[in-house]
């Protein structure tokens, strides 16, 4: 939960011209065209697909940004627009964006700066909206990108718990990756392989439904709240083009599913989205085999990294130890640089923060809102 801002916007709400040669475009882009665009970038991900936001909040509530340099596409972002009548405008949220690291040429800090500037000029200065971005940047990038964001008028949103994850380097040969797994984790993988388990891999809705059944059983057994709406992800899967669809992996023993995982591989970093296992799966070590299969699939898709999508050694030590063992000597324990905000004035920013605090409580109480400001 957000508890304050590290720094206030120091440049007000005046627009800053883009550097010579840069142009920014906002507005309607077809679904097919947008997916063609993001496929050109190494730092794109499922959260920047058309389907992710369209299925969660409706097509009318998404907007697209394209940045060009001398006519060449160099960056972009998909934003979720939340209209708040009491503010007279609303807010724009960009999750894991903007993207600016092309697959075929080195990343340029100047492009990131111009993308951040163009987004602020449009949403904050022209539309008078709150702008929140959550870029795919890690703490070791802070010396460069923190300075850029602050210079461009973004304030760092301070959070009680910084988002921490493990990122594996899966670019080496598969044999080398296996050698660098934690020894105990590798022993469990060896055991799973000896158990002659049946592995189902696919993208079909029937496989997704089978996973949901296993996932819901896990939540009931552990009495965990559902952190992400799995039904929304099923809708996203149905809408994604074939080349972007999530991979569902199931481990079966005697015809019954005992473990499952869902991963995404768009851009150069694969993401672990969901995992589930039952008591039988705990015994046959199916989750270990599924993760190994996921790594092989991601490598075949051209991924260089695997983001295990969050760790919390204190609140969820069991999952942390599983992910840490998988990470072994291939991975790095990192914190995301965080979320950043621009706002046209302090009153609007304060109102959005109040909404951020209230809506999670309403959701917990059973209130449902199709599109709300929480990232």
Notes on the protein architecture:
By secondary structure, the protein is of the alpha+beta class. 38% of the residues lie in helices and 26% in strands. The protein has two domains: 2-162 and 337-364, Gcn5-related N-acetyltransferase (GNAT) (Aminopeptidase), CATH 3.40.630; 165-334, 3-Layer(aba) Sandwich (Aminopeptidase). It has helices at residues 31-38, 50-57, 109-126, 142-151, 174-179, 183-194, 205-222, 230-239, 279-284, 286-300, 317-327, 346-364, and strands spanning 2-5, 22-27, 62-69, 72-84, 89-95, 130-134, 155-159, 164-169, 198-202, 247-253, 256-266, 269-277, 305-307, 331-335, 340-342. The strands form two sheets. Strands 1-7-15-6-5-4-3-2 form an eight-stranded mixed beta sheet, sandwiched between helices. The protein has a seven-stranded mixed beta sheet with strand order 9-10-11-12-13-8-14, sandwiched between helices. β4 and β5 (89-95) form a beta hairpin. Residues 1-9 and 361-375 have low confidence and may be disordered.
Major β-sheet, in short?
Answer: 8 strands, mixed
Strand content: 25-35%
Low-pLDDT segments, ≥5 res: 1-9, 361-375
Which structural class fits the helix and strand makeup? alpha+beta
Could you tell me the CATH topology label of the largest domain: Aminopeptidase
Characterize this entry briefly.
With 375 residues, the chain is an alpha+beta fold. It is built from 12 helices and 15 strands. The chain starts with a strand and ends in an 11-residue tail after the last helix.
Map the helices and strands.
Elements: E1 2-5, E2 22-27, H1 31-38, H2 50-57, E3 62-69, E4 72-84, E5 89-95, H3 109-126, E6 130-134, H4 142-151, E7 155-159, E8 164-169, H5 174-179, H6 183-194, E9 198-202, H7 205-222, H8 230-239, E10 247-253, E11 256-266, E12 269-277, H9 279-284, H10 286-300, E13 305-307, H11 317-327, E14 331-335, E15 340-342, H12 346-364
Helix pairs in contact: 2-8, 3-4, 6-10, 7-8
